[in-house]
Amino acid sequence: MNRGLLTALAIARKDLQTELRTKESINASASFALVILVLFSFAFDLGREELYAIAGGLLWLVFSFAGALIVNRSFARELPNDCLDVLIASPAPAWSIFLGKSVAAFFLLFIVELISLPVFGLFYNIHWTQNFPGLLLVMALATWGITVVGTAFSAVTVNIRLRELMLPVLLYPILIPLLIGAMGTTTALLQGEPMFGPGATGEAFASLRLLIGFDVIYTSLALYMIEFILIV
Amino acid sequence: MREKAIYILAILAALVMIPNLKTVFMGLPDEAMQGAIYRIIFIHVPAAINAQVFFTVSLVTSILFLVKKNFLWDSISVSCIEVGTMLVVVNLVTGSIWGRNQWGIWWAWDLRMTSQLMCFLLYLGYLLVRPAIAEPTQRATLSAFVAIFAYADIPLVLMAIRLPNVRTQHPGPVLETGTMAPEFRAPFGLGVLAVFLICTALILIRQHQETAQREIDSLRRELHSI
Which residues pair with B35 in a beta bridge? Predict the structure, then answer.
């Protein structure tokens, strides 16, 4: 296998191992997601139909809030003991450091999503198990989008003042098209509309193309440009 | 040289804009359906067009900075984005006033409006993150990165808000099928030109300030190190 990819895998493994030992960001992120889910119940008092109509939107707001907490730690984790400088000085190319960190953040956020989804279904009485494979596909695509852009911006903000404040200000506007797509598809899937085959209106599929486009554009842009960001 | 260019641009802008405003306010008749309020279009649309032009310039200069590492490109990028963001605000505010008058509401989540608002938020992030970075090379590099990411988002936003599940309220003629009466075309084109000239002068002034600021900062750092 390509050397850079192997390095990326090693970095992803290192990040996941550190995180699963300390569980600092995954615990914080999962609890934050739960708190937001509970807060929504005070914000709205909706009937069953209305709730299904906004379910995708609620879910992705929770996921994107949780995602910002996770990617914020991606590079900040390396700051104590000057680990970041060592990583950059190591022979690993910048793109594999970035790719490794994105993959690790992807798995962490995916775990948080898999925890919050059943809780969401339970609290709001939503049947999320129908169309579950389609839902998993949307979650994978959109989560990758959030983590790849999030990790890139976490590299931008790691060395600047007000890091925790700047990351969401930069991240969320960029994520808007992705979130529009993910929210639309998720709502359609939760309402019981299949993504493919008979009965599909094409709404879920149209958003899926947007998610794929977003992922491809930002993954390639970030992999290409990360060199400039890490080495300044 | 620079001062001369700024003065010439400003004088040209005045020469274009003042007679044009006279035509717009005194010469042109009221529009059949909307009355006098339609005149907003002679500011509203030029602001939007010029904002896109300056954002595109900032994309090019951001890439040039990353390739050449020359601070000239960085100072042009930031000036273009500041002026472009201001133009987007002008565009949003005038559009909102028109909407209140014609639709009875200040804001509708229509596709053009949404995309313009996203554009504003993206570049607002750029303008917020810039002052948070102290070291000039780092500031310029990270800003260029943010500018490129922000620009890449614009086509995606346009694609996203055209999805079937997004409502739209902009009248179709504005976006696709409509044409403008012939006597409106010249004032409209001159409006675009006038805004372009004024904003280019503003960009030159801001670019000069940006360069001076960086020089002052580096002198200050030198002084501290002594």
Answer: B31
